[in-house]
Amino acid sequence: QLQLVESGGGLVQPGGSLRLSCAASGFTLDYYAIGWFRQAPGKEREGVSCISSSDGSTYYANSVKGRFTISRDNAKNTVYLQMNSLKPEDTAVYYCATGRLALLVPSPYDYWGQGTQVTVSS
User: Does residue 48 contact residue 37 with C-beta atoms inside 8 Å?
Assistant: First the structure.
């Protein structure tokens, strides 16, 4: 059974950090582009960051550039999203997804995790 499971979300104060994990089972992440997306209440799902399968190129939304870092550990079949200097506007459900192309739009992604809630509040 193909499955992606996100973890690491929670409540953090502004300026704090969290590291999200996206663990795959039933398939190998090496061959796929991985994207992190988020969706806040009443808003559309937006691309946050992605990493390619070919050369490990990374891409970030302007809103998180310089604060978030995506990485992959193929040995653990896991992708991470390190989030620093968190802001209240980062509050959302965060999803990881696998796909054919490393793009910050949902269309190339076929498999999605169930999401993990990130809340940034004092």
Answer: yes
